[in-house]
Amino acid sequence: MHPKDNIDERVLALQDSGFTQRKNRRKKLRVVVELVVLAIIAFGICTLFFNLRTYQPYDHAAVAAGDKDTGFVALSYFGVDHIGDTSTLIGQKQLYKHLQELKRQGFVTITQQDIKDYYQLNKPLPPKSLYLMFEDGRRDTAIFAQPVLEDLNFKATMMSYGENIESLDLKFLKPSELEELEKSSFWEQGTNGYRLEYINVFDRYNNYIGEIDPLRYAMISPYLERHYNHYLMDYIRDKDGVPKESYDHMQRRISYDYKRLRDIYTEHFGKVPGAYVHMHANTGKFANNNAVSAVNEKWIRELFTMAFNREGYCFNQRNSSMYDLTRMQPQPYWPVNHLLMRIKYDINTPIEFVTGDRSRADKWNLLSGAAELENETYTLTTLPEGEALSEVRESSNLPDVKISTNLLGNSFGAQQIFLRSDNARQNYLCVELVNNELLVIEKTNYSKKELYREKIPVILGEKIPSVEENKREAETQENIAFARYAPTAEQAEEYYGRAKQREAMPAATVEDGAEAYEHVQSFHRRSVHKLEIDLKGNRLSLKLDDKNIPQDITVAENGQGGVLLGASWQGEAWSQRNLADDVYDAVFEKFTITTNTGKDEEKVLFTTELSGWDKFVFQAKETWESILCWFLRNG
């Protein structure tokens, strides 16, 4: 046996220079890969706990003074969460869509200093300047808005209440957290005042409630209309409208709030924020009463650099006072085109509306307003105080059809489906949900005729409360609200006793002949309904949420025609906030047209439903979102 035969092969391999070089190269490569992996992990940890991005302001030197005063747009969101299914908090994804589109169209954010220089030093602003605010100083707003601001390089002002930053309520940001936001460079500080509280409150039945805090307000707001005020807006009055306080007391009460605000912010931050949102004027002054207004004005001018004293419209120019600025409050349910429509007609500057899926949007002929096709949903946005109309292309020769869709637009306003329409729209059949009613209108030779009208709750077999029943419910809930937040057990017991006593009182029903409760719809009220239309010859059958309309409707056989979708703003809506909103969105989900031949399976002529791989991906995302939302709600 050769001596080398007894030597381990690994030892022999070490004597092979080629093998050694290959092994060393592998070692070096492995070390490099490990270092890269460690660097990625370290970077992830750093980005998780430390903000590595810095806000980059617009180039001030590149903005030249011009003859035209382009002013600035001010938007103020109530707050942000992940889901966005509340009446006030916008979802993170929807906020991103809003702000991303504004950035795409050239908007840049400006700061409080920019506004100050604009008014006091006559410095110009970029043509599309945006001052962005988030109100109430909520912790979830900071968590979910921060990544949006970083990604878009936008800067915003976090408004807060002085009372809340010192409270134990964990919903609100505390001083150290507000300081961290400022250090990130994407935020400035502002304030909504010292407290949010309501005075001189009456319910819709003119019952005097008096003074309530936000917690009680949230419980009884469904039974209020507009007969209430904010803490700094008026004298505190009794049920007859007579002041319960003297001028000196009113002055001390209001001054106390401003002094507390000044002291709290100075103690924690060394200064009072420059921007103030006055809750809630829109009076042309600083309160509903001249004497109260004078007290507010004195403190506002003394403490703040600027004040947003109005809301509803978004455009500010030099002809506005720095202490009488206006802001617009986008709602969580606004599609992007709603926001763009409002801004466009406030600033009177060309704005490009979004269309969504362009390839599928080409199957529509938009005649007025704005439209977006996203996933399986077609959204029509009206002109201010106007309408929107869109035609399904290649639908002009459809006599008998079946149509199904989910209608997701708010209760107040009209979502319309036109059938058998001629080109001039002088002959058509229209089925619409309008102001919580189902309505069928036929138009022939310039003449309109109403064929059917019924309240949606009646169609669905829901109980219609009487005025007496609704009043009993309101007064019961008002006592429960005061009981829940009573300062002592004795007072809580007293209010609960009153609630039980009122709830036990008899109230005549509609079936007894009592007057039905008819309440003007709020344009914030959400609505979801499935509508199915069966049109054949001179017969129209309808189904709403799987409930058949009791009788078929006889219609004129005016031959073939097109299918159109419409939206209409309705001017009688009311709201407890954002009174100037004059745009409406009709939302059609899974809009489908099929033939109506009587066969078991009809041919699909048109649909917004996705199919194939696109459908699979969409449903997978929807499922994941549903799971995530469930954990967020129940976690």
Model description:
With 635 residues, this protein is an alpha+beta fold. The longest helix is centred in the first third of the chain and has 33 residues, at 17-49. It is built from 16 helices and 30 strands. Strand 25 and strand 26 (547-548) form a beta hairpin. Helix 3 (92-104) runs parallel beside helix 5 and helix 9 packs parallel to helix 10. Residues 10-14 and 574-578 have low confidence and may be disordered. It folds into 3 domains: 3-49; 71-196 and 231-332, TIM Barrel, CATH 3.20.20.370; 338-461 and 522-634, Jelly Rolls, CATH 2.60.120.560. Strands 1, 4, 5, 6, 7, 11, 12, 13 and 14 form a 9-stranded mixed beta sheet that branches. Strands 16, 17, 19, 24, 25, 26, 27, 29 and 30 form a 9-stranded antiparallel beta sheet that branches. Strands 15-18-28-20-21-22-23 form a 7-stranded antiparallel beta sheet.
